[in-house]
Amino acid sequence: MFNFKHFFVVMMAGLIGLIGATATTQTQTAAATTIKFTSAMHTNKNLTYKGTIKYYVKSDAKKYQANIHYAANRWNKALGKKVLRPTNSLAGSRLVFTGTNKLGGDVAGMAEINSGVIALNTSWMNRYGTQKQRAVVIHELGHAFGTKDLYNYPDASLRSVFKKQTIMGGNYSTRIGSFDAKLAKWTLTKTRTMSPSEFSHYRSNEGLYYQQMLRGQL
Ligand SMILES: [Zn+2]
């Protein structure tokens, strides 16, 4: 599931060492090896095609466009590669942002990888300031790389750390730390890219977000 629950940041010592590990000193590198990436952290597909994800912002999400671009640029910087690129072609996109008030009330945003849609809940987004809007988009974009929600992580003590300190744990941060960046790079290697025919198959599926969005049901 790709819902974005609401958790707030209370910094804990554990992962701070981890996040700081590569950025600061070599003595902290040992801490970085204590949290291993596992299959519970990734799905089976990502939205890349030829190394990039072209994204389109639909008219109903235009008011969030500046924050969407900001979030995409943060990820590009964190990944050290221009993976996310804006496009003006809906048909040529692998990812579409839409704004809707038809999501569940407890969900700020949803990412559907098969048909390549990120739906932003307008009733939350319109109440949010710039920082939180950016944080929602950064989190949802994490799913585009194939990363799962870490607030559902099976191990309870790690889950609690993830919730507070990671993008995919739902920490509402606009800072993509080294753990977040490494995890995204890793899930990109663990997931597969859909071929154009597989992707268009999903986009033509009535039950998935893309068709629902086109029909105004989303
Ligand atoms: Zn999520």
Automatic annotation (TrEMBL):
Residues of the signal peptide: 1-23
Metal-binding listed as a keyword: yes
Keyword ATP-binding: no
Domain of life: Bacteria
Keywords: Metal-binding, Signal
Pfam families listed in its UniProt record: Peptidase_M7
Family: Belongs to the peptidase M7 family.
Protein name, as recorded: Extracellular small neutral protease
Origin species: Lentilactobacillus fungorum
Taxonomic lineage: Bacteria, Bacillati, Bacillota, Bacilli, Lactobacillales
